[in-house]
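Recap from last week: sequence in, structure out.
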Amino acid sequence: MKTIKEITIIDYDAGNLFNIVSTLKKLNIKLNVTKNPKKIIKAEKIIIPGVGAFKEGIDSLKKKKFILCIERVFNIRKTFTWNLLGYAIFDECFL
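Predicted C-alpha coordinates:
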Protein backbone atom coordinates (compact mmCIF):
# COMPACT_ATOMS: atom_id res chain seq x y z
CA MET A 1 0.00 0.00 0.00
CA LYS A 2 1.36 3.39 -1.02
CA THR A 3 1.81 5.90 1.79
CA ILE A 4 0.25 9.30 1.20
CA LYS A 5 2.78 12.04 1.90
CA GLU A 6 0.24 14.85 2.15
CA ILE A 7 -3.40 15.62 1.43
CA THR A 8 -4.30 19.01 0.01
CA ILE A 9 -7.65 20.50 0.95
CA ILE A 10 -9.10 23.19 -1.31
CA ASP A 11 -10.21 26.18 0.76
CA TYR A 12 -12.88 27.90 -1.30
CA ASP A 13 -14.57 29.69 1.61
CA ALA A 14 -17.36 27.15 1.80
CA GLY A 15 -17.75 23.59 2.95
CA ASN A 16 -17.02 21.72 6.12
CA LEU A 17 -13.33 22.58 6.17
CA PHE A 18 -13.04 22.57 9.96
CA ASN A 19 -14.42 19.03 10.32
CA ILE A 20 -12.15 17.61 7.64
CA VAL A 21 -9.04 19.30 9.04
CA SER A 22 -9.87 18.15 12.58
CA THR A 23 -10.40 14.56 11.49
CA LEU A 24 -7.20 14.37 9.44
CA LYS A 25 -5.18 15.88 12.30
CA LYS A 26 -6.56 13.24 14.68
CA LEU A 27 -5.40 10.61 12.19
CA ASN A 28 -1.94 12.22 12.08
CA ILE A 29 -2.21 12.86 8.37
CA LYS A 30 -0.09 15.68 7.03
CA LEU A 31 -2.29 18.19 5.29
CA ASN A 32 -2.11 21.40 3.37
CA VAL A 33 -5.11 23.75 3.27
CA THR A 34 -4.73 26.07 0.32
CA LYS A 35 -6.35 28.53 -2.06
CA ASN A 36 -3.30 28.39 -4.33
CA PRO A 37 -4.06 26.73 -7.69
CA LYS A 38 -0.39 25.83 -8.26
CA LYS A 39 -0.31 23.86 -5.00
CA ILE A 40 -3.57 22.15 -5.91
CA ILE A 41 -2.25 21.09 -9.32
CA LYS A 42 0.92 19.66 -7.73
CA ALA A 43 -0.93 17.92 -4.89
CA GLU A 44 -0.74 14.16 -4.51
CA LYS A 45 -4.27 13.85 -3.09
CA ILE A 46 -7.01 16.48 -3.03
CA ILE A 47 -10.13 16.94 -0.93
CA ILE A 48 -12.88 19.35 -1.94
CA PRO A 49 -14.92 19.87 1.25
CA GLY A 50 -18.67 19.47 0.82
CA VAL A 51 -21.13 22.20 1.70
CA GLY A 52 -24.44 20.35 1.89
CA ALA A 53 -25.72 22.55 -0.93
CA PHE A 54 -24.41 21.91 -4.42
CA LYS A 55 -25.32 25.27 -5.97
CA GLU A 56 -23.50 27.29 -3.30
CA GLY A 57 -20.47 25.02 -3.51
CA ILE A 58 -20.16 25.09 -7.27
CA ASP A 59 -20.80 28.86 -7.36
CA SER A 60 -17.99 29.43 -4.87
CA LEU A 61 -15.59 27.17 -6.78
CA LYS A 62 -16.44 28.93 -10.04
CA LYS A 63 -16.11 32.40 -8.49
CA LYS A 64 -12.63 31.58 -7.21
CA LYS A 65 -11.62 29.97 -10.55
CA PHE A 66 -10.99 26.55 -8.95
CA ILE A 67 -13.03 24.70 -11.57
CA LEU A 68 -10.29 25.24 -14.17
CA CYS A 69 -7.70 24.06 -11.67
CA ILE A 70 -9.71 20.91 -10.87
CA GLU A 71 -10.16 20.25 -14.58
CA ARG A 72 -6.41 20.52 -15.11
CA VAL A 73 -5.72 18.05 -12.28
CA PHE A 74 -8.25 15.63 -13.77
CA ASN A 75 -6.66 15.91 -17.22
CA ILE A 76 -3.20 15.24 -15.75
CA ARG A 77 -4.07 12.32 -13.49
CA LYS A 78 -7.38 10.89 -14.67
CA THR A 79 -7.99 9.45 -11.19
CA PHE A 80 -9.95 10.92 -8.33
CA THR A 81 -11.46 9.81 -5.07
CA TRP A 82 -14.93 11.33 -5.05
CA ASN A 83 -17.13 12.76 -2.39
CA LEU A 84 -20.61 13.91 -3.33
CA LEU A 85 -19.59 17.46 -4.16
CA GLY A 86 -16.57 16.26 -6.12
CA TYR A 87 -18.69 13.95 -8.24
CA ALA A 88 -21.33 16.63 -8.77
CA ILE A 89 -18.62 19.06 -9.94
CA PHE A 90 -17.30 16.48 -12.37
CA ASP A 91 -20.79 15.73 -13.66
CA GLU A 92 -21.73 19.41 -13.99
CA CYS A 93 -18.51 20.66 -15.53
CA PHE A 94 -16.84 17.84 -17.41
CA LEU A 95 -19.51 15.49 -18.75
